[in-house]
Amino acid sequence: MLVIRLKRVGRKNQPSYRVIVSPKGAGGPKGQPVEYLGWLNPLKKTFELKKERIEYWISQGAKPSATIHNLLIKIGLIKGSKIAVHQTPPPKEEAVPVTEAKTETAAVEAPVKASVEEPKPEIVKEPISEPSKEPVAEEPSASEPVVETSPAETEASTDAQAS
Questions:
Q1: Which of 51, 71, 100, 116 has the smallest C-beta neighbourhood within 10 Å, fewest atoms?
Q2: Pick from 1, 84, 78, 4: nearest CA to 38
């Protein structure tokens, strides 16, 4: 299969290219071309192409490279959309921005939820007293009589003992 592509000529830091027709994979870009079809100077952005010969080789089944395809669209020799020549990989997502985005959305959601909820009545809880460390008196056994005293009698007996 034939390919219409660019062959680099020129010195270091002074590129210029020849537009050639060559077999695909045979000798690479430095292989012997079948025919020269023009030239391209990217520094001055000038070029010259043999349009009739390019049309002939395309009719014979030669495929233009992506850069040549875009160049042929530019001059109006073929119609279609341009091909992305320099394909860049998609940017890698970092873990840090993702977590920051989650915290921002959580911060935005929190005030919304707080404003929607109705205020709840306050429940007052009495503090639970800690268990005393004094030994607990044993319950009176069934054989001993249980004497109940009223609170008034208890206060009178404590007042009498205090004085």
A1: 116
A2: 4
Domain that holds residue 8: 2-75
With beta carbons less than 8 A apart as the criterion, state whether 17 and 8 touch.
yes
Q: Is residue 39 part of a domain?
A: yes
Give the H or E element holding residue 46: strand 46-49
Q: Let me know if residue 160 belongs to a domain.
A: no
User: Does residue 20 lie in a domain region?
Assistant: yes
Phi and psi at residue 58, to the nearest 5°? -65, -40
Give the model confidence (pLDDT) of 105-153 as tens digits.
Answer: 555 565 555 555 666 666 766 666 666 565 555 655 556 666 666 666 6
Q: Is the pLDDT of residue 154 over 90?
A: no
Query: Which CATH number belongs to the domain containing residue 33 in this structure?
Result: 3.30.1320.10
